[in-house]
Sequence to fold (108 residues):
Amino acid sequence: MKLVDDVIYKLRKGDIKPDQALKILHDARSSESKISRSTSWEKALEEDLSQLTCDLLKIDGGKLEMDIPVSDLGLDSLSATEFNNLIRGKYGITLQATAFFECNTLRD
Fold:
């Protein structure tokens, strides 16, 4: 969880941009996945993203599959804006609008 906390701290300070934060986390996940498929911070983040998405799309409980394309879940440009607001509220960061088109799944 230290890496995520460090990245959020740097984002809030303005030391890095959201796209840089995503790259740092993605690179760390790629490196770690060679050693261990799931880390505790990765699981926690996946659970948060799954819950935020369920809340937004009014999907009852359960856990979403992280590799399903977000468009298949019903996430469109309007709900992507709402999702960004939820991310900003929970983590204090704002994702670039292009992140929703560049990342096809919640895991991405």
